[in-house]
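Let's practice the habit of predicting before peeking. Look at the sequence and jot down your guess about where helices and strands might fall. Then scroll down.
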Amino acid sequence: MNAITVRNLPPELARVIRQKAKQERTSLNRAVISLLEEATGLGRPTNKVVLHHDLDHFFGCWSKEEYEEFNEALREQRQIDPEMWK
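Done guessing? Here is the structure:
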């Protein structure tokens, strides 16, 4: 197996690598290899469920009235027009 030395690693990048190693309960070496595999598309396929958090800031921000208004609009849109299905 080849060894590569990386110099002048930016502190933020080092923090991310340590964080990944801690989350995955693995070594720093394994975390770096995993990140490199992911970045190059050479990673091993996993059955991990990917969670997206890009809309999390919307969670819980509607008032009860806004929620009811939205649900009413959905109810109207979900009604089937029998004339269209003849």
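How did you do? The chain has a mean pLDDT of 88.
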